[in-house]
Amino acid sequence: MPIRSRLGPLGPMFVATVLALPIAAHADEEELTRRLEKLTNELEAVKAELAKMKKEREQAAAPAAAPAAAPPVAGAAPPPAASAATINTEAAPGGGADTVITGYGEINYDRPSSAPEDAVMDLRRAVIGLQHRFDDQTKFGFELEVEHAVSSADDPGEVEVEQAFIEHQLSPPLAVRGGLMLIPAGLLNENHEPTAYYGVERNFVETAIIPSTWREGGAQLVGEVGNGLTLQGGITTGFDINKWDATSTEGKESPLGSIHQELALAKAKDLSFFGAANYRGVPGLLVGGSIFTGGASQGAAGVESMRVTLWDLHLRWTPGPWDLAALYARGTISNTAAFNTKLVGNPTLVPALFDGSYVQGAYRLRFGNYGLAPFARLEYYNTAKKYEDIGPGLTPAALATERVITTGLNFDLNQHIVIKADYQWFRDVSANNRFDLGLGWSF
Predict the structure, then answer these.
(1) Helix and strand tally (H, E) in the chain?
(2) 243 secondary structure, DSSP code
(3) Which residues pair with 423 in a beta bridge?
(4) How buried is 397 (Cβ within 10 angstroms: 0-12 exposed, 13-18 middle, 19+ buried)?
(5) Structural contact between residues 84 and 101, judged by C-beta atoms closer than 8 angstroms
(6) Is the torsion defined by CA of 202, 203, 207, 210 positive or negative?
(7) Using CA atoms, how far apart are residues 237 and 211, in angstroms rounded to an integer?
(8) Residue 208 has what DSSP assignment?
(9) pTM here?
């Protein structure tokens, strides 16, 4: 029987509807597919944006300075509120491992006024470092330094490990460090990148009296006790008086610099202790001090017990664009008389007392990314202020206290690159007067 007769007058409509169902279903399937593709594309775009935001957060959270960098002490950058001693409570993004590459370096030109033929240009140092975070509480800091561009048996350069330590956070206010670490003395030692201080060369007090980039091997505790006060203390290797070379002038340039061991097969019979306190509870103000003391004889036969003690007091104040700093450091070596008696006839005996101080002022100007900071520094230092008496005609005369005036400019190309120029006047040895130019970087 024909369909029409079976379905009645609605039969043709029914047939048309049935025939249209596959077509509608196909159209709906295409529309659904189109919508799914659109949603997929939108989801991919959202995922890409989230990945970009995560990467930006990771870059912002990653430290940009060396593992143990302290706040800029005398640089043209605004004063931060943290220090090398400040405990880093931030974990790696996502709680996983994170590695950050760091570095700094400088190229200097020094031209003596009275002997321009002695002018030298030098890649003073180039340093590459890394900080790796193992987990939320534990990280590793490392720096490798090359001095004077080329290091070999016939060249003046050196290659040395400047830092290699593990830090573990015991609690938010307390951390422990172990390994090769910078000693928290003065304003410069923990924060010695060229972008962080004024002048082409590091100041004399914090190179001749406090050895520059002075590091020892051992362990220390770092604590934030609240109200802006940071305390550090530890036990480390110390100095070896048996390294003293009485035939050279190295000891007159820096008494402790000539007998520090740098953890290179360091003799460790006599260990040393140090402590440091720094207060930053007032915005723009840093007040602190440090002390380091330990035996230096290292059990050598025929050498009496000798002790090295070095302490300092320092201040930095940054009201507005001004950057003002002052420091005093004093070192002693005990029981030098018997040791010096064996050295009589040589040009450089061991001093019993050496000290130095400086005051410094700078005015920071900003022009977008550029910065300009004229500065002046007055410093006094004496690497042999007193000798123990070893008899008439045998006891060396104390050295004259040198006064150095340094004036110049720091020009920041940006926060990572600085161009410097200065002139230095020496009162005692005016032949040392010189003009300096420098290019420095840090990242």
Answers:
(1) 4, 17
(2) G
(3) 407, 435
(4) exposed
(5) no
(6) negative
(7) 15
(8) I
(9) 0.80
